[in-house]
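During the no-cost extension, the postdoctoral fellow (Dr. R.K.) reprocessed legacy sequence entries with the updated structure-token encoder. One reprocessed record is reproduced below for audit purposes.
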Amino acid sequence: MLPETTPGDDGTATPPPARDGRPTDRGALRADLRAAIPDASAAVLVTAAVFALLYARVESGDSATVAVMPFMDDAGTYWMYLLSQAFGWSGLLWAWGTVVLGLLLSGPRPARLPVSRQVLERWHRTTSLTTMALMFAHALMFAAELVRYETGLAWAERLWAGFADAFVPGWYDSGTGRIAIPLGLGALYLAIPLGLLFYVRHRIGANTWRRLHRLVIVVYVLSVWHTLLYGTNVWYGEWPRTVLWLLQLPVAVLLLARLLWPARRSERLGAPGRRGAGSLPGRAVRTAGRVAAGAVVVALVVVVSSGHDGGRERPADPPATSPHAPEAE
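Re-encoded structure tokens follow.
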């Protein structure tokens, strides 16, 4: 979620060196954490607004979540589940923003930017930190709801059941969550180390960090996939799901532009001076990436324009089952 540029690439600023000449990684992290306070505060306000909207829709009977799971028609009882949803939506919004910023920084340079490149880089770092916190809060509130739900167990068993279902991949064994929750956990468990590796890149090497950092797009894809599979607010083939698909088009276009015209000269097709840059395997991989990104752009246009976005039909008689029903005795 952080830019793929380093001081040797295109003039990216680095934290001030320590007296022995080594970069102060901890100092950079502390500085970014302080700079992230306004960003995180905005995320909390957005989360609160989303929570209020979800709560009001449950109370009014218009909630898609209640249409999927009618037993959740009591917002006062299931407020932790609604708060988990709210953190999930704000987390996805912040992930979208930080990925867009990262692609702008590592792709072709716009002729004019409303702010300086240094400001964009700072925004990118702070939104990345906020995204990680929102993702964790999303999983934590889901675990809290599961602990509240398991009333038939002792407290120690309830805590373990909630933790395992929410944080152990493959443990949750009900419905679509058997696939969707491991996808979301994969995004969470990749996002945290990939984001924090930025602050130790001077120790592991800029090239190693850069290669690992390219996996960030996988984090975003897993997050969107998790939402499309398990987000009850976009469960049905209606306009919210279409909007979610539509929001992926700018990301795909920016990714294609970043692959076609990368900011780093060594990543361009046939670029001299780097081992493997002009070799046949290297050119094949880069070409395949460009083709794949172009195919994703076309696929997104087809999905949005055709309306065949994988959404379910809203049933006339909604199911009455729990998302994690206790086993019958």
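The mean pLDDT is 85. DSSP finds twelve helices and no strands in the chain. The remaining legacy entries will be reprocessed before the final report is submitted.
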